[in-house]
Amino acid sequence: MKINQVSTINPNAYGYTAMQSKDNVARKTKETPATDLRFLNKNYNHVFVNFQGVQNSLELVKQIPLEDRLASLFQNFRQGDLILTGKELNKAKKAMYESAGLVKNVIRRAFFVEDDKLGGYLGFVKNAGGDTEVLNLNPFGINIITGGKSYELGAKDNFYVIEDDVLSVQGNMLKIKNKPKTDLSPFRKNFARAFDFETNVSPEIEKLNKKSISLLSNEMKKTPSKVTFADVGGQDKLINEIKKSIIYPIRYPQGYENIDVNHGFILYGPPGTGKTHIARALANEADATFISLNGLDLESKWVGESEANWRNLFAEAKANQPAIIFIDEFDAVARSRQSHDEYGNKVVNQILTLMTDIDNEADNVFVIGATNNFKALDSAITRSGRFGKHLEVPLPDLEGTKKILDIYTKNKPLSEDVSKEALAQRLFDIKASGADIKYIINEAHAHGYEREGIFEKMENRTLKNSDVENFRINSEDINATVKAFLESRDVNKRRPIGYR
């Protein structure tokens, strides 16, 4: 193991004034055996030997103004570097971890400069534009003094700084300099602990780059046709209500100046009735930003993160108005609050606050929660002013069943022996939802392929275009599929699938 000699620095020799007590001077002359070895970093060969002479040397280094020690690091500062400063490394690491979202690039190298007088913790990074940014890692605000004016930088926030700016951290002033008063490069290892993460991050960067590159081909693929209300069958009454409540306020705001517009809606009913389908069609009809997620998508095992996720979601919608947020399985997060579930209560309270803000600010944001368990929702969620508009999405009636069947057989090759009228009546009688009808038609298509040996020809690579062109779904395929559907789900002895 190679142990590099640690130079003893005389700050006076470099233009700095060393303030030492008599006790420190006395201790400096005593010889103390080495008692501890600490690696500066596992990727470096430098090792500190913790004997008293070196300790005093480090104390002398710390008396060099922090602004000059940082300026020495700024001389070789590049994107991917992170500089932390404060009293303790572990506390600086924790503070930086909590504010990791402030850094918009991969951290390749990190440096820690210890300082007892700063009064808090700061981070510095180089952004994509080449500017140096300061990260306020403290739970309190600091001030940036520039051009004779002072500006507050909030807790856990960041802003770029330039030379001669002054940071005020609880009354302690730190001037930003691009280079120190004198060259400190020979002694950087004495006042800056260095950490090199290049080996760890390079493979991850390559993976992300490959993923991004692979998306280029997806961008060039033909965009699927948009879902519109014409593709939604059996829900005419509901669609008319949605148009008056959401689409018209977006298109003709002047007509709703004296009307309180609802921003929260709940779609409820059995699964498979088309709640998500309707929401997607609504977004396309309104030409609005559409954000769709499952109720549990924003949940986190870390207390406090779920609330932050919901705030970020609503902020994104506000930034892209008009916007529609669709939350499936809404009862998973908006369930009735219980006194023993403090964590769940906080999430519900956060959603309530966000909805109140939308109403108060009259944002062009509409939030739709979908559930098949309406009774489980919290009463404060369902009251007017939050999610006050409740729209049932029922199983289709006979006419609705016919329309849905027409939609899902539009591009299917049906044989002449298949009566759509009789099939619609049969599907209505077994209380098939829109999703059930789609499933039955697709399974009948697959059954026909099996009957005609088309799958076998695909396996043997003997399939001809004429095999597909001449294929028809016949009544045998329909009957077999409906029978299998009834047997597997026992429709006559149950409520609709998944309905609670």
Compact description:
This protein is of the alpha/beta class. The protein contains 17 helices and 17 strands.
CATH superfamily placement of the largest domain? P-loop containing nucleotide triphosphate hydrolases
Q: Rounded to an integer, what's the Rg over CA atoms?
A: 33 Å
Proportion of helical residues = 25-40%
Q: At the third CATH level, what is the topology name of the largest domain?
A: Rossmann fold
Spatial ordering of strands, largest sheet: 9-6-5-3-4-12
> How many domains make up the coordinates?
4
Overall pLDDT metric: 78
**Level-2 CATH architecture of the largest domain:** 3-Layer(aba) Sandwich
The general outline is elongated
Q: What structural class is derived from the secondary structure elements?
A: alpha/beta
Query: Which oligomeric form is depicted?
Result: single chain
The helix count comes to 17
What portion of the residues fall into strands of 2 or more residues?
15-25%
- Low-pLDDT runs of 5+ residues are 1-55, 216-224, 339-343, 491-500
Kindly report how far apart the N and C termini lie: 69 Å
Count of strand segments: 17
Largest β-sheet summary: 6 strands, mixed
